[in-house]
Design a protein that fits this description.
single chain, two-stranded antiparallel sheet
Length: 112
Amino acid sequence: MNKNIYLYSGILGLLASVICGFFNWCISSGIIIGLLSSYLYFYLLNMQFQFKDGEIKKGGILGFGIRIIVLALPLLIACLLPNYFNIFGAFGGVMVFRIIMMIMFFKQKGEM
Protein backbone atom coordinates (compact mmCIF):
# COMPACT_ATOMS: atom_id res chain seq x y z
CA MET A 1 0.00 0.00 0.00
CA ASN A 2 1.19 3.49 -0.75
CA LYS A 3 3.01 5.02 2.23
CA ASN A 4 1.68 8.45 1.29
CA ILE A 5 -1.80 7.33 2.33
CA TYR A 6 -0.59 6.81 5.88
CA LEU A 7 1.21 10.15 5.87
CA TYR A 8 -1.63 12.22 4.40
CA SER A 9 -4.32 10.65 6.56
CA GLY A 10 -2.17 11.16 9.65
CA ILE A 11 -1.62 14.82 8.81
CA LEU A 12 -5.29 15.39 8.02
CA GLY A 13 -6.42 13.52 11.14
CA LEU A 14 -4.06 15.41 13.43
CA LEU A 15 -5.00 18.72 11.83
CA ALA A 16 -8.71 17.99 12.33
CA SER A 17 -7.97 16.90 15.88
CA VAL A 18 -6.13 20.14 16.67
CA ILE A 19 -8.89 22.27 15.14
CA CYS A 20 -11.60 20.37 17.03
CA GLY A 21 -9.50 20.58 20.20
CA PHE A 22 -10.23 24.28 20.39
CA PHE A 23 -13.97 23.59 20.54
CA ASN A 24 -14.31 20.23 22.30
CA TRP A 25 -11.45 17.95 23.30
CA CYS A 26 -13.75 14.90 23.32
CA ILE A 27 -14.11 15.17 19.54
CA SER A 28 -10.35 15.49 19.28
CA SER A 29 -9.72 12.34 21.28
CA GLY A 30 -12.38 10.50 19.26
CA ILE A 31 -10.62 11.39 16.02
CA ILE A 32 -7.32 10.12 17.40
CA ILE A 33 -8.66 6.72 18.52
CA GLY A 34 -10.56 6.33 15.25
CA LEU A 35 -7.44 7.06 13.22
CA LEU A 36 -5.32 4.68 15.30
CA SER A 37 -7.94 1.98 14.89
CA SER A 38 -7.96 2.47 11.13
CA TYR A 39 -4.16 2.23 11.01
CA LEU A 40 -4.26 -1.00 13.03
CA TYR A 41 -6.98 -2.41 10.77
CA PHE A 42 -4.98 -1.85 7.59
CA TYR A 43 -1.80 -3.12 9.23
CA LEU A 44 -3.61 -6.36 10.11
CA LEU A 45 -5.09 -6.52 6.62
CA ASN A 46 -1.66 -6.20 5.02
CA MET A 47 -0.25 -8.83 7.38
CA GLN A 48 -2.96 -11.37 6.59
CA PHE A 49 -3.06 -11.04 2.81
CA GLN A 50 0.45 -11.83 1.68
CA PHE A 51 1.84 -13.05 -1.61
CA LYS A 52 3.85 -16.27 -1.34
CA ASP A 53 5.03 -18.18 -4.40
CA GLY A 54 2.56 -16.45 -6.70
CA GLU A 55 -0.53 -17.14 -4.60
CA ILE A 56 -2.32 -15.08 -1.99
CA LYS A 57 -2.31 -16.33 1.58
CA LYS A 58 -5.64 -15.40 3.14
CA GLY A 59 -6.21 -14.74 6.82
CA GLY A 60 -9.40 -16.74 7.29
CA ILE A 61 -12.50 -16.09 9.35
CA LEU A 62 -10.59 -15.46 12.59
CA GLY A 63 -8.56 -12.69 10.97
CA PHE A 64 -11.72 -11.17 9.54
CA GLY A 65 -13.37 -11.19 12.96
CA ILE A 66 -10.37 -9.55 14.60
CA ARG A 67 -10.30 -6.82 11.94
CA ILE A 68 -14.01 -6.10 12.40
CA ILE A 69 -13.52 -5.88 16.18
CA VAL A 70 -10.63 -3.46 15.65
CA LEU A 71 -12.89 -1.21 13.55
CA ALA A 72 -15.80 -1.39 15.98
CA LEU A 73 -13.73 -0.86 19.13
CA PRO A 74 -13.31 2.94 18.94
CA LEU A 75 -17.04 3.37 18.33
CA LEU A 76 -17.83 1.12 21.29
CA ILE A 77 -15.36 2.97 23.50
CA ALA A 78 -16.86 6.29 22.45
CA CYS A 79 -20.35 5.01 23.29
CA LEU A 80 -19.30 3.72 26.70
CA LEU A 81 -17.14 6.73 27.63
CA PRO A 82 -18.89 9.80 26.20
CA ASN A 83 -17.16 12.10 28.70
CA TYR A 84 -13.80 11.31 27.11
CA PHE A 85 -14.53 10.39 23.48
CA ASN A 86 -17.05 11.58 20.93
CA ILE A 87 -18.64 8.92 18.71
CA PHE A 88 -18.82 11.23 15.69
CA GLY A 89 -15.15 12.09 16.14
CA ALA A 90 -14.28 8.39 16.33
CA PHE A 91 -16.28 7.71 13.17
CA GLY A 92 -14.57 10.64 11.45
CA GLY A 93 -11.17 9.29 12.46
CA VAL A 94 -12.01 5.89 11.02
CA MET A 95 -13.25 7.44 7.79
CA VAL A 96 -10.31 9.83 7.24
CA PHE A 97 -8.05 6.97 6.21
CA ARG A 98 -10.61 5.60 3.75
CA ILE A 99 -11.31 8.98 2.19
CA ILE A 100 -7.61 9.67 1.65
CA MET A 101 -7.18 6.16 0.23
CA MET A 102 -10.00 6.70 -2.28
CA ILE A 103 -8.60 10.09 -3.30
CA MET A 104 -5.15 8.60 -3.87
CA PHE A 105 -6.63 5.65 -5.80
CA PHE A 106 -8.64 7.88 -8.15
CA LYS A 107 -5.64 10.16 -8.59
CA GLN A 108 -3.48 7.20 -9.60
CA LYS A 109 -6.23 5.84 -11.84
CA GLY A 110 -6.36 9.15 -13.70
CA GLU A 111 -2.59 9.12 -14.31
CA MET A 112 -2.61 5.73 -16.06
